[in-house]
Amino acid sequence: MTNLEAQIQLLIDNAPQDGMTPEIVATIAPALRAIAQKLRYPHYYILQNLQENWILTTLSNKKKPKLERRVVYAFPRLQDVSLFTSVGINPQVVAKTIPVIHILFQLVALEPVDSIVFFETPGTTSNAIEVERTDLQNLIQQNLQQYRTSKQVPPDIA
Length: 158
Description:
Helix content is about 40%, strand content about 25%. The chain is α+β, with helices and mostly antiparallel strands. It has one domain (about 5-150). The longest helix is centred in the C-terminal third of the chain and has 19 residues, at about 135-150.
């Protein structure tokens, strides 16, 4: 079992056992896997406050200041966090390692977040892949639509 498959299985195993959620998680797994396979690392470090809420960074467009995006940064190594922020200075902020599948799964539900920026090269913030929440949601919707279609009872069944 690959690392991504193990992460997906863990997500399914930890889903509420209500008869539906594990099956839905399994249905959207191909969308999560497709994006995770484009990323270089199986785990990333995410900045969090002491309540375990992810730290958002608001980016604004220099030409259009009203155009803002709220992003979460994902770092490949703990030491890379210090390239971007002074985590050690603020005791209210910690960096926590999170499996990439779980990060993507969380992104779907994080309404205030527009995207997650995955830094792909240790030691620099110049090589990054941005995963937009709306793109991931659209991919998941396609999977769920196929799931719903496959679950419908054929009209000619007697």
